Structure formats: C-alpha cells, structure tokens
UniProtKB/TrEMBL annotation:
Classification via SUPFAM superfamilies: FAD-binding/transporter-associated domain-like, Uridine diphospho-N-Acetylenolpyruvylglucosamine reductase, MurB, C-terminal domain
Single Gene Ontology MF annotation: UDP-N-acetylmuramate dehydrogenase activity
Similarity remark: Belongs to the MurB family.
Spans traversing the lipid bilayer: none
Catalytic reaction(s) noted: UDP-N-acetyl-alpha-D-muramate + NADP(+) = UDP-N-acetyl-3-O-(1-carboxyvinyl)-alpha-D-glucosamine + NADPH + H(+)
Domain FAD-binding PCMH-type: 28-231
Name of the top EC class for this enzyme: oxidoreductase
Keywords noted in UniProt: Cell cycle, Cell division, Cell shape, Cell wall biogenesis/degradation, Cytoplasm, FAD, Flavoprotein, NADP, Oxidoreductase, Peptidoglycan synthesis
Coiled-coil ranges from the UniProt annotation: none
HAMAP family: MurB
Record-level GO BP terms: cell division; cell wall organization; peptidoglycan biosynthetic process; regulation of cell shape
Localization per record: Cytoplasm
Stated name of the protein: UDP-N-acetylenolpyruvoylglucosamine reductase
Length: 351
C-alpha cells in the first residue's frame, strides 16, 4: 500500500496531517505528528494500525499524553490517539493478592514527599470479578465506575492521568501497588495483524515495564480480576491518595525518574531512594529553571513547563540533573518517561 492509498483508506476517520501534538501531552510541548487520527472504536483502532503497517508507516499510540516527551521536531508516521473506551463486568474469578515486589519507594519526609503507608492495605477477600476494559478507557473513569459497584483494587492508582492501555504498557504503580497485580490477560493485535490473547505470565511485568515496550504487539483490551472489597474503604483510600497526589505539580509528565534500588541507596548512604529527595537534598537542584522548564518547587522529581516551553528546555533540565548526579554520586538517573521522535544522539547525556 502506498502513502496515498493509506491516506485514502484512513480519511473517513478524519485523518490529519502535520497535526500539533503539544495539546495532547501533559507537558504541553512537542512538534507535529506526520499523520494523526483519534479512534473511538475497536474496529477503527485495528483498521488504523493495519493500514499503516501495510503502507510501512510507523505507528505511535498515545492516550492522555502523560509520561511522554515529544520532540520539537514531532513524530514521523501515524500517531493514534486511542479513545476506545469500554468497561464490561464479567463473571466471578478467583482472587489472591499478587505481591510481587516491584516497588522502590522509601520516603523520609512525608510533609514534602507524599507517603503511602498510612492508607495502604491488603484486600481481605477471595471473591472477585473479571472485568474487560478497552485500552483507551480513561483510568480515572474506570476507578470511579468500578468502586461505585463495589469492585476494588484500582483505588491505588487515583490521581494518575492516563488510559488502561498505557497503565499496562508501563505497569504503573501507586504506592506499593502495581497494575500487574490485577491483570489476567491482554488482548493484542499481533505482528501478523491477528487478534490474540496473551496471559499475564508471558508479559514480563517488572518495575515500570512490560513486554509491550520491546515488541510490536498493540494492546486492544485488558482482562482483569478485581476483588469485591470494602467499597467505602476503597473510596476513602482513593480520595486520600488523590489528595496526597495533589502535591504534584501541573504541566508535568509525572515523576521523571525511576527510584534507585535499595542496593544503590545503601551503597550511596542515602536516607531515601526517591529522586525527589535526591535532586532536592543531595544535588541541590530544586527550583532550577532552564528556558521555560523547571525542576518543581513542589516535588523535585517533577519537571514543570510554562507557556512557551519546548521539549529542548525539558531535555536541558534533565541534562543538568544527569551531569550533577554523575559528578556528585557517580550515577545517572534512569528516566521513567518515554521519548518520542528523538534520536539516540539527542538523548545520550540523559540515559
């Protein structure tokens, strides 16, 4: 398929060319997509991906645009904004808490860096429900919808802007909990354009990681097994966790870096393994600004942008953090965000 044939096939979905992406990201920066389409059904999601593949056009899927930095040059190929949103509550399933220890968070000052320990708990139930959720479903909508029906588990992820597909792709965490705890299997469009299901055991979940970051399968929907827990307790936890996360700055992509391991923390003799603590107390960079990007005064693991900011401003702030950390600690922080439209040379000083 040629690019002209691709454009003709996708045109009914309101295909746009050279479409600005900044407004579709939480950092509010970045250049245009070569092609852009927003999809709201399973059929249109699949159709868009297959058409692009046939025309040998690269595909990038975004949800709410959190946890990503788009290059000022933009993104080549087709960018799909996935708004395919459905929640289907199915039959009962057997629930047992999956407490695989992916987490890395030890705070020393909960007045500055929100703490989770006072609201954390284990669901004391074996009764649960299967729930199938499409990949473009907003996470906040899902949390509220399920808790209202007494289906719990997602309360730990309150305050995170994003979609179900992105949550699974990055195995998001809320305090000591990861979305992988509740995943049963994932429906994907595989490299041969077939719809198939992949069981949890094959997804290689780890801290901020799933196998989808290294293969060419696209998440279509996710089947979860959620506990039927204490509705009021879950709602209270959700509300309090969202309140704590209101400390987070606006116009950011979320936490910029993965926390260091406990081994690294012990080796360096640090009180906390959080980069918010390290950047603030050890590197002394809290509040530093380059261009219209700034290390947040609210939480130093976050980089905020202001009107007129560019992705280059954000990169320069990250370079400052990396060089200072390397000089003082001998390590470079590992970014938690995804870089879209950049080449390796542009990122060589921050990864």
């Amino acid at each position: 398929m040629t690019s002209n044939s691709f454009e003709k096939e996708i045109k009914p979905l309101e295909l746009k060319k050279d479409y600005p992406l900044a407004k579709h990201t939480t950092w509010k920066v970045g250049g245009p997509a070569e092609y852009f389409v927003e999809v709201k059904t399973k059929q249109d999601l699949i159709k868009s991906i297959i058409a692009a593949r046939k025309a040998d056009i690269a595909v990038t899927i975004i949800g709410w645009g959190s946890n990503i930095l788009v290059s000022d040059k933009g993104i080549k190929g087709l960018v799909i904004k996935n708004s395919y949103s459905e929640i289907n509550i199915l039959e009962e399933c057997s629930y047992s808490p999956d407490k695989t220890n992916y987490a890395r968070l030890k705070q020393v000052d909960s007045s500055q860096y929100y703490s989770f320990t006072d609201i954390d708990y284990i669901e004391e139930t074996s009764v649960a429900r299967k729930v199938n959720i499409s990949s473009g479903t907003p996470l906040p909508l899902t949390i509220n919808t399920l808790i209202r029906q007494g289906i719990t588990g997602l309360q730990w992820f309150s305050g995170i802007p994003g979609t179900i597909g992105g949550a699974v792709y990055n195995n998001i965490h809320g305090g000591s909990h990861f979305i992988a705890e509740f995943v049963s299997r994932v429906e994907v469009l595989d490299e041969n354009n077939n719809l198939t299901w992949i069981d949890k055991e094959q997804l290689d979940f780890a801290y901020d990681y799933s196998i989808f970051q290294t293969n060419t399968n696209y998440i279509v929907s996710v089947e979860f097994c959620f506990p039927i827990g204490d509705k009021d307790k879950a709602l209270a936890a959700s509300t309090e966790w969202a309140r704590k996360k209101s400390l987070q700055p606006s116009n950011s992509a979320g936490c910029t870096y993965q926390n260091i391991t406990e081994t690294e923390q012990e080796k360096l003799g640090l009180e906390s393994n959080s980069w918010g603590y390290i950047i603030d107390k050890i590197l002394g960079l809290k509040g530093k600004q380059i261009g219209q990007a700034k290390i947040s005064d609210k939480h130093a693991a976050f980089i905020e942008t202001y009107p007129g900011a560019t992705s280059e401003d954000v990169i320069k702030v990250m370079e400052l953090i990396a060089s200072t950390s390397k000089e003082k600690l001998g390590i470079i922080p590992h970014p938690e965000i995804f870089f879209l439209g950049f080449n390796d040379d542009e990122l060589k000083h921050i990864k």
